[in-house]
Design brief:
alpha/beta, Rossmann fold, five-stranded parallel sheet
Length: about 190
């Protein structure tokens, strides 16, 4: 029985698609959805006054935290209107460790998160949070390959299954129609 699903989000399209997937996946179990955002610590080289007099790094960080809480509220509101059990959390730390620690602390039954699909040099340099979570988590982790959307999501799309697109073969036919035509032709 799945009672609690942890869904880490960074507010990108792929992470919000993973949230949509978690909603659909959990529909049968009616779990609590825990939407987590992790603020990574900011490290700046040099002394604090290097960036100019009166530059307050604490103020910058508090503004980032305020903006993240506001975004979490915007993500949760439509889900709560649909009578889903939703909790939002904001943590500070390294993303992969914060996700795994939160899952342990909350006794999450499952983590559903997106991958951004980085490959090559980008993957080597930036690594993969999802990959690290899969390696160190003590509960099952379901990763959802994020799709880059042509336009920004609207708030109304959260909680709705992503629309499926059909591939079109040569001649404007879908694969199903192309196969049927091929069978009729004796192929």
């Amino acid at each position: 029985m799945i009672r609690r699903i942890l869904v880490p989000v960074d507010f990108s399209d792929p992470s919000l698609q993973a949230l949509d997937y978690a909603i659909e996946f959990g529909r049968r179990f009616k779990p609590e959805l825990v939407v987590l955002h992790v603020l990574e610590p900011i490290y700046y080289p040099g002394p604090p006054d290097m960036y100019g007099p009166g530059y307050d790094m604490g103020l910058v960080y508090r503004e980032l935290e305020r903006a993240a809480r506001e975004q979490l509220s915007r993500v949760a509101a439509p889900l709560q209107k649909k009578r889903l059990t939703v909790r939002t959390l904001l943590c500070v730390g390294t993303a992969s460790h914060a996700i795994v620690d939160t899952a342990k602390r909350l006794k999450a039954d499952l983590i559903i998160m997106s991958t951004h699909g980085r490959t090559g040099l980008s993957h080597v340099l930036m690594g993969s949070v999802a990959e690290r979570v899969v390696r160190i988590a003590t509960c099952p982790v379901l990763t959802v390959r994020g799709q880059k959307l042509g336009r920004r999501r609207t708030r109304g799309s959260i909680g709705r299954a992503p629309q499926r697109t059909r591939r079109v073969a040569r001649g404007g036919r879908t694969p199903e129609r192309a196969g049927a035509a091929h069978r009729r032709a004796g192929g």
